[in-house]
Amino acid sequence: MNLPSPGDLAKTNQRLASNNARVTALLNSLPLLLDHLIAAADRRDWLEVVRQSESLAEMGRAMKCDTLAIPAGELAAVTEARSSELEIKRHLLRVIGAAGRARKTSFLAGR
């Protein structure tokens, strides 16, 4: 059996620590990102809602977090399709809930 060298283990450990730090930073930025998204929806700035929700969807995909990526992508799609304001706000609420679940899951996993 070939065991990894100590250098390989150190590199793997460093890469994991870097990824964990990146995910933590992204999760910590969620409240501010949601504030911007909600403010854009309040202003009825639908182009900004699309931009912000696409950014959140990308973030979710980068973190391998479908819990966030899917509802954020759906919000972008319904907003871009110029669905009713009520439908857009329903999807916005789903994104807010998903962001809370993503942060909670991350917090519990870190315990």
Automatic annotation (TrEMBL):
This is Uncharacterized protein. It comes from Anatilimnocola aggregata.
